[in-house]
Each structure stands twice: as structure tokens, then as C-alpha cells.
Amino acid sequence: MKAWNAVTVLAVFAALAGCSPDRKGLPELAEVQGTVTLDGSALGDAVVEFVPLEAGRNCSGKTTSSGQYRLAFTSDVAGAPPGEYQVRITSFFAKKEYNEKGIEIPFVEKIPAKYNSKTTLTASVKSGKNEINFELLSK
After folding, report:
1. Mean pLDDT lowest for which of 16-25, 62-71, 105-114?
2. Core-most of 1, 45, 47, 124, by most CB within 10 Å?
3. Within a 10 A sphere around the Cβ of 82, how many other Cβ atoms?
């Protein structure tokens, strides 16, 4: 009986060692992270989206309260394929705000259009680890 338990335990550990998101069919992915600031202050609750200049899928990540982001290729796979990208940064998906009467305040984009709808930002993703920071200015 003890031999069976040991074999079972070894089989479970072997199976767990191989557990990871299914990467079958995925392109080579590079790690991409960085920090976003607006006028020198950390920009939290912003979405950073990398749009490939050639064919491919967009990769995105949301900034933390300290302005840090990490790109994701899918909801459970981090990274972005190496290549050239146009970058859009928006606060559209930030938490909704309400006035003192509990009425939702209409959304106003706090990030200038030159960083999102009319973006001038670009980035180059290389194989391996990439730290790509964005220092945005409101004027």
C-alpha cells in the first residue's frame, strides 16, 4: 500500500511540474513591463495597449497605483511578440466616479489624445526582457 501511495505522489508531482498555460501555437513572446507617468506622477488605472505595426494581435496591461504595467498576450499568457508597435494609453477603463448624490460622473479622458486616439507613441519589443517606460505630459 505504501508503494502505491509513493507512486501516486510521484505521478502528481510530475503532472504538476508540467502544468503551465498551453503555449501550443503561440508565437515567441518577450516580457514587457514598465512604468507610466503623467507630468512626473505615477499614472494608475490606465490601460497600456501595444498595437502591432504589422499583422498580429494587440497586447495590453493595466497600470497599478504606482504606474507599473506588464503586457499580456492573452488573459492568461504574459508577454508580447518581438516587433514594432504603436502604443495607446487611456484612462477609459478606470473606476467609475459618482457625485455626492450617487449619480455617475460622465467620463472625461485625463490623458491627452496624442497618447491614445491620436497617438504618437511607438515602442520596439526585443526578444527577452523589455522595460519600456512612458513619461507623458498633459501639455
Report:
1. 16-25
2. 47
3. 16
Q: DSSP characters for 53-72?
A: SSSS--EEEE--TTSEEE-E
- The dihedral formed by the CA atoms of 109, 114, 117 and 119, expressed in degrees to the nearest 10: -140
Looking at this protein, which amino acid is placed at residue 117?
A: S
Residue 77 scores a pLDDT above 90? yes
Sorting pLDDT into bands at 50, 70 and 90, what band is 71?
Answer: very high
**Which domains, from first to last, does the chain contain?**
31-94+107-136 (2.60.40.10)
The three cell numbers of residue 48 are 497600456
Grid coordinates given for 97? 466616479
